[in-house]
Design a protein that fits this description.
alpha+beta, 3-stranded antiparallel beta sheet, 50% helix, 18% strand, iron-sulfur cluster binding, 6 helices, NIF_FeS_clus_asmbl_NifU_N, iron ion binding, globular, Iron-sulfur cluster assembly scaffold protein
């Protein structure tokens, strides 16, 4: 694969994204954005109890972004559906890139954005249920909040220029 082109897997997920849409009254909702590229991902989770474990029973996404952003959003939903919260927390950008059989280096940030949206949805779920939040998840949440603040500030600046 050339480092400048998308794989067939990426193109397929872009053209036919899995789990696209919203979940009304989600158990967990996460949104992440990137100030540089302008991509924004929203991830919705439904979580149910099964044999004393919390399982992600449904997941949907909405993404405003490029082909890689949409493809990575689609892949992360496939990777987490049916997983426990603990298993979902272990999913990384590398899992997404491997599933897509690679991404151009300039598009790797899209896989990070997908993980940020997932992390934020899991953070919000745990927070809502007054559960212990792992330190690594807190750190990711702080990063996502910082990015959101940057995007909001940039947007306000652009609005003032009109």
């Amino acid at each position: 694969m050339s480092n400048t082109f998308y794989t067939e897997e990426t193109i397929e997920h872009f053209r036919h994204p899995h789990n696209f849409g919203e979940i009304k009254s989600p158990d967990g909702y996460g949104e992440a954005g990137n100030i540089i590229c302008g991509d924004i991902m929203s991830l919705y989770l439904k979580i149910r109890e099964s044999k004393n474990k919390e399982i992600i029973s449904d997941v949907k996404f909405r993404t405003y972004g490029c082909a890689a952003a949409i493809a990575t959003s689609s892949v992360v939903t496939d990777l987490v559906k049916g997983k426990t919260i603990e298993e979902a927390l272990k999913i990384s950008k590398n899992n997404i890139v491997k599933t897509l059989k690679g991404l151009p280096p300039i598009k790797i940030h899209c896989s990070i954005l997908a993980i940020d949206a997932l992390s934020e949805a899991l953070f919000q779920y745990l927070k809502k249920h007054k559960r212990k939040i792992p330190p690594e998840l807190k750190k990711k949440h702080e990063h996502v909040e910082k990015e959101k603040k940057s995007i909001d500030e940039r947007y306000r600046h652009w609005q003032l220029r009109k």
